[in-house]
Specification:
CATH topology: Sufe protein. Chain: A
Number of helices: 4
Structural class: alpha+beta
Largest sheet: 3 strands, antiparallel
Number of domains: 1
Number of strands: 3
Strand content: 15-25%
CATH class: Alpha Beta
Shape: globular
Length: 144
């Protein structure tokens, strides 16, 4: 059963890496940030539209990188679109804990979530930066 789950997770990463969802720039947008991983050469620009109810109306990214960074950005945009900022921030915390191998309890993510496809990245410290680059860009955009 574990091999079946690993195969499914690998297929999710490959699918999102080959055909990233929400690829492009939001127009209009009121939040943006750049992400760069010099170790891997990954780079992206994240744009999103935050409405006056603090809901992410639209979120997109452009850039290039390895399958893990593209898949992570794609999965992130799917997960965060339509969410209130408070929920998005909890998802950010959970995801970064998930891929860094933290023992901290997850509050909003569970094993049925597609983001779990990236959990195995925690076993490869150099790849954690690939998986979290878009997420840190999102977090930075919130602060700016």
């Amino acid at each position: 059963m574990n091999d079946l789950i690993n195969d499914l997770y690998q297929e999710i990463i490959l699918d999102h890496g080959r055909e990233p969802r929400n690829f492009g720039e939001c127009e209009p947008h009121n939040k943006s940030a750049d992400g760069h991983n010099p170790l891997c050469g990954d780079s992206l620009k994240l744009t999103f539209l935050l409405n006056d109810q603090n809901i992410i109306e639209d979120i997109k990214f452009i850039g290039e990188g390895c399958a893990i960074s593209l898949a992570s950005a794609s999965l992130m945009t799917e997960k965060l679109k339509g969410k209130k900022i408070e929920v998005a921030e909890e998802i950010f915390k959970d995801f970064t804990n998930l891929v860094s191998g933290s023992d901290e309890d997850l509050k909003v993510l569970n094993e049925e979530d597609s983001l779990y496809a990236l959990k195995g990245v925690g076993g490869f410290p150099m790849r954690v930066k690939c998986a979290t680059m878009a997420w840190h860009a999102f977090n930075q955009a919130l602060k700016d």
